[in-house]
Amino acid sequence: MSSHSNHSKHEIIPCERCGTAIECKANSYAKCQCSVVQLSINEVQHISELYDGCLCAKCLFELQQEYRDTLV
User: Fold this and answer.
1) pLDDT 10s digits, 12-70
2) Does residue 3 belong to any structural domain of this protein?
3) Residue 47 in contact with residue 5, Cβ under 8 Å?
4) Which domain holds residue 23?
5) Superkingdom of this entry's organism (predicted)?
6) Rounded to an integer, what distance in angstroms lies between the CA atom of residue 1 and that of residue 8?
7) Cβ count within 10 A of residue 55
8) pTM of the predicted model as reported, rounded to 2 decimal places
9) How far apart (Å, rounded) are the C-alpha atoms in residues 70 and 54?
10) Is residue 6 in some structural domain?
């Protein structure tokens, strides 16, 4: 058995881009703040090339807009 506890608390982590504390809910993605940002496959790839960790919804929106601006 895993020693990892199974309670419902989610991890509070800093956004990798701006440092804002965010609650990571990777185990229940639909409830995570990042799920409100609808990213295309290309946008996800672009952002994952820049950052490895979690980002807050505000940064995801900003990076999405920056990416879309490069396509114009």
Assistant:
1) 999 999 999 998 777 776 677 777 899 999 999 999 999 998 899 999 999 999 999 99
2) no
3) no
4) 12-71
5) Bacteria
6) 18
7) 22
8) 0.77
9) 23
10) no
**5 occurs within a structural domain:** no
Q: Note whether residue 66 is domain-resident.
A: yes
For the stretch 30-39, pLDDT in tens is: 677 777 899 9
What span, in angstroms and rounded, lies between the C-alpha atoms of 1 and 30? 27
Which residues, 6+ apart, have CB-to-CB distance to 53 below 8 Å?
A: 13, 16
The DSSP annotation for 22-59 comes to: EEE-GGGGGGSGGGGS---HHHHHHHHHH-SS---HHH
Q: What total of structural domains would you count in the chain?
A: 1
* Residue 65 DSSP SS3: helix
